[in-house]
């Protein structure tokens, strides 16, 4: 059955067992956060319940007054992955999709760690599709528009740690399962979103 896009509800293209994200993976974003670039990938987890589809609403929590957008390239895993070498990562990847690592910036600063600030339900829009042909080393554009205004415009070529390094590093810590999602960090230009913004 083929239906017009206006008559369907797009869901996330995958429901992962976990979302593993990388912080401060772009030099300019680390600078805008008044922070140094880490010497190794700085990882944190977002719960599966944070995942929503690309056109679904993000619910702004009442406990935060400063929620930000963070456009990112997301990697979707295709195989069970543990202790994989950087050069062997490729066959473990199913593909890539778009993500938004929504962050309650005020809670991130006050808590001193990031679980609450980045873990609210709906704080990880994904999709609309998983592209199995992308090559992030080609310098993919990472763009976020809020109400048609471009806020973020970066390139995966500016990532401090590449996809291979990130996945190899994470796999030394935890087993990645098929469908798990890796968020690779956001370029500079993050900023607030308000009720009614698109």
What layout of secondary structure does this protein have?
Blueprint: E1 19-23, H1 27-32, E2 42-46, E3 51-52, E4 67-69, E5 71-77, E6 93-100, E7 103-104, H2 105-111, H3 115-119, E8 124-125, E9 141-146, E10 149-155, H4 163-171, E11 181-183, E12 191-192
Parallel strand pairs: 1-11, 3-8
Antiparallel strand pairs: 1-2, 4-7, 4-12, 5-6, 5-11, 9-10
* Weakly predicted, low-confidence segments: none
Order of helices and strands: EHEEEEEEHHEEEHEE
How many DSSP helices? 4
CA distance, first residue to last residue: 29 Å
Number of strands: 12
Which structural class do the helices and strands define?
A: alpha+beta
Mean pLDDT: 96
Going across the biggest sheet, name each strand in turn. Answer: 2-1-11-5-6
What would the principal axes of the Cα set say about the shape? globular
Give a quick account of the main beta sheet: strands, pairing sense, barrel closure.
Answer: 5 strands, mixed
Helix content: 10-25%
Strand content: 25-35%
Provide the gyration radius in Å: 16 Å
